[in-house]
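We were asked to recover a plausible sequence for a given structure. The inputs and outputs are reproduced exactly as logged, with field labels preserved.

PROBLEM: sequence recovery
POSITIONS: 292
GIVEN STRUCTURE:
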């Protein structure tokens, strides 16, 4: 069964508890694929093996489930694939699907009503950027598995349907790592929203324009501005990466009271020494707070 009526935090919590996962790196890796499915998996097995067993071998069942949820329309599927494989902006998703903006938005409205995706707006007002109101909106999947389906299964369904998984394996192995980036950002933003203990969050989201993307933007009840970014790679975060982020923000006249950073594998010694009340450093283990 595919679960659509839960937030990303709720789905993550359900997934970790159902599968008894305490290692957050493992949790994110498998949640990116199986999150939002009402099944148990063996996380001691490689993701490619589990994907073949639980999803590819049950292609007809899941395609029927997906068609039941979406309606099975070709244009809707093309747009969903455009979202899953791109930067999630409406304009770019519609280009990938080869549909006009008007036709695309009609499909989006229908998909939102079915709770398959949500429309996300850049948080311009939180950063005082009222002139950015024409920035394209983004389209967000509510369920990680559905995103995975339209990113990896739907575009090459013919081979999978016939039992040929080679093309899938090549594409999956080439993109498995970076496909988790979005989930990591969503969970980091949820962490800030739900567990930022110093001051309650009253508004949160992301900010983007043509020059910069800030995956974490929030405003506290005491009117402090929080901005932050994430790095989901095996390398430790370096001070130079923070400096680059701050320089990019300065060019866009963006300032904040608190900077938050989330990484997969920690920080350099030089960067750790800068940790303070205005620079807060988190890692994957911090996300365990979302499942408690």
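RECOVERED SEQUENCE:
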């Amino acid at each position: 069964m595919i679960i659509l009526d839960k937030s990303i935090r709720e789905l993550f919590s359900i997934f970790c508890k159902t599968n008894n996962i305490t290692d957050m790196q493992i949790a994110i890796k498998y949640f990116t694929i199986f999150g939002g499915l009402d099944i148990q998996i063996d996380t001691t097995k490689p993701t490619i093996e589990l994907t073949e067993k639980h999803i590819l071998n049950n292609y007809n069942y899941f395609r029927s489930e997906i068609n039941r949820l979406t309606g099975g329309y070709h244009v809707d599927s093309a747009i969903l694939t455009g979202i899953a494989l791109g930067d999630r902006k409406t304009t770019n998703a519609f280009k990938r699907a080869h549909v006009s903006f008007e036709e695309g938005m009609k499909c989006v409205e229908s998909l939102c009503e079915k709770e398959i995706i949500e429309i996300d707006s850049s948080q311009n007002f939180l950063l005082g950027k009222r002139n950015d109101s024409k920035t394209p909106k983004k389209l967000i999947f509510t369920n990680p598995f559905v995103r995975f389906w339209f990113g990896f299964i739907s575009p090459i369904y013919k081979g999978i349907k016939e039992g040929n998984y080679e093309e899938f394996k090549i594409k999956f192995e080439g993109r498995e790592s970076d496909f988790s980036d979005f989930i990591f950002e969503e969970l980091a933003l949820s962490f800030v929203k739900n567990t930022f203990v110093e001051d309650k969050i009253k508004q949160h989201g992301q900010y983007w324009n043509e020059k910069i993307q800030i995956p974490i933007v929030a405003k506290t009840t005491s009117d402090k501005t929080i901005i932050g970014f994430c790095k989901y790679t095996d390398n430790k975060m370096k001070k130079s990466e923070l400096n680059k982020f701050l320089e990019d923000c300065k060019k866009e006249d963006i300032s904040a009271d608190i900077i938050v950073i989330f990484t997969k594998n920690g920080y350099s010694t030089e960067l750790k020494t800068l940790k303070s009340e205005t620079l807060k450093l988190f890692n994957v283990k911090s996300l365990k707070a979302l499942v408690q």
